């Protein structure tokens, strides 16, 4: 049985983000065909399981995120090349070392380069330069490059002249729960129609644009769940719109039962992300059959096959909100669900990875 090492995620069990959800489903779907080892961030797991989903878990005493992620990934790869046939690397943080790793090892490296991380506005000039350098090394030295969005696949071909495997994320783990009015009533949402969004409160997610549109179009409430107190951007937005009753700017909700209730009961899912390729939260919303209003960047257009309703400004979003009808929303939700069932199932995603392992 081929030995596969997975590097770059926080680890298993999945409870942090998109990478971890991907690893969870890959190991669950493919553990009878491959011998998996998953590298995990020790500090995130007080209870250190030896195995999960049939995969062996190895703990690294470094942070999987931030500056330490570079050494976290490198150390994991150095351990993995001793025994693994294929090393799957999620993200490019540690890939600046790929030229050296390929000199000392003939193992197969499969690298998912994520969503052009160096373009994100939150990084300093040096960080952008470093991430671009790491991306270049990843693409040039990987045995197989994975991209999660057609726009990124096209970028890799144009920028580096390399083909890549297009493999996105599954969303069919998101299941619509039975409606619980007690949970909705706690947030004063049991008797209103509302739009929903959960994300990091960052400028690149166009939070200000979305709130401005809903503030001027009180036909529908808006619920945004996020880390408002983590930045001046978030604090200022919440303070600015604090007095508007139909805007619900909620702190992070870590109880998935509550979060799933709020998401499943919404009339519209608003997706403002402008960076990062195919976003797992968008794929999940589509899998739930939620009508999607999305910022009109190329990544979101590719993910939704141009079938969502798009906006580029707050004025355009306001116009969209004022034009919505029950018939339009029903049709749009059906189209999103149909597309997700065709493209974004974990069976399909796992099969794509199995083909390149």
TrEMBL record:
Domain DUF1972 stretches: 1-172
Any Pfam family hit: DUF1972
Annotated InterPro entries: DUF1972 (IPR015393), Glyco_trans_1 (IPR001296)
The entry's keywords: Transferase
Domain Glycosyl transferase family: 191-326
Keyword Transferase: yes
Coiled-coil regions listed: none
Annotated protein name in UniProt: DUF1972 domain-containing protein
Native species: Janthinobacterium kumbetense
Taxonomic path: Bacteria, Pseudomonadati, Pseudomonadota, Betaproteobacteria, Burkholderiales
């Amino acid at each position: 049985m081929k030995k596969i090492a997975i590097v770059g995620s926080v680890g298993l069990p999945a409870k942090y983000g998109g990478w971890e959800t991907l690893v969870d489903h890959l190991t669950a779907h493919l553990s009878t065909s491959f011998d998996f080892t998953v590298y995990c961030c020790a500090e995130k797991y007080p209870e250190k399981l030896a195995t999960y989903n049939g995969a062996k878990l190895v703990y690294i005493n470094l942070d999987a995120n931030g500056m330490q992620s570079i050494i976290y990934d490198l150390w994991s790869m150095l351990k993995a090349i001793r025994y693994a046939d294929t090393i799957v690397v999620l993200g490019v943080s540690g890939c600046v070392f790929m030229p050296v790793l390929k000199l000392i090892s003939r193992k197969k490296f499969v690298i998912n380069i994520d969503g052009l991380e160096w373009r994100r506005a939150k990084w300093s000039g040096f960080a952008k330069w470093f991430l671009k350098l790491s991306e270049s090394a990843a693409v040039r030295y990987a045995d197989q490059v994975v991209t999660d969005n057609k726009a990124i696949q096209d970028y890799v071909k144009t920028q580096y002249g390399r083909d890549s495997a297009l493999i996105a994320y599954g969303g069919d783990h998101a299941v619509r729960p039975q409606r619980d009015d007690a949970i909705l009533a706690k947030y004063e949402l049991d008797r209103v129609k509302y739009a929903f969004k959960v994300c990091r409160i960052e400028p690149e997610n166009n939070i200000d644009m979305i709130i401005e549109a809903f503030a001027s179009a009180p036909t529908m409430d808006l619920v945004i769940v996020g880390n408002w107190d983590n930045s001046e951007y978030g604090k200022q937005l919440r303070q600015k719109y604090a007095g508007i009753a139909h805007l619900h700017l909620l702190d992070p909700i870590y109880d998935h039962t509550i979060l799933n209730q709020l998401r499943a009961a919404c009339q519209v899912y608003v997706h403002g992300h402008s960076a990062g390729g195919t976003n797992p939260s968008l794929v999940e919303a589509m899998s739930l059959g939620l009508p999607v209003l999305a910022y009109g960047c190329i990544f979101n257009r590719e993910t939704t096959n141009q079938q969502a309703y798009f906006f580029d400004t707050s004025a355009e979003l306001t116009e969209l909100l004022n034009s919505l009808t029950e018939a339009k929303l029903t049709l749009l939700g059906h189209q999103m669900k149909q597309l997700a069932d065709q493209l974004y199932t974990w069976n399909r995603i796992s099969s794509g990875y199995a083909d390149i392992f």
